[in-house]
Amino acid sequence: MSSKISHSGVVEKVSEGCVTVRILQASACAACKVAGHCNASESKEKLVEVRSDRASDYRKGQQVVVSASREVANQALLLGFGVPFVVMVGVLFVVLRLTGNEGVAALSGLGALVPYYVMLWLLRERISRRVSFYIESNY
Length: 139
Hints:
alpha+beta; 4 helices; 5 strands
């Protein structure tokens, strides 16, 4: 298993200290022969901001490889999916135990995600310093 995750992409925008790269994120089965007829296969275009001291070396339309370490990817998954799942299920069970009302418990579980994601948004600069990509190479 590789120690990094890489995606090829195209430079969309270059600004001081930052390169915006468009990558195509495809599901594992997107290359299947019947992928066009199946709902399980999907691909999405994503814009990734890469901070770089050498941003001026890149040009719009240039093909590059954007990488992140496996640790960074795991940290992003934990912040985006793991912690919210634990918060939602934890609140769901606590409210269900206290009220006995499943509807209130479900809405409370979902409602508990609002402050979590607001907190993530407020801490986005701090998180972006820890969860970051780098341009590995040019084609």
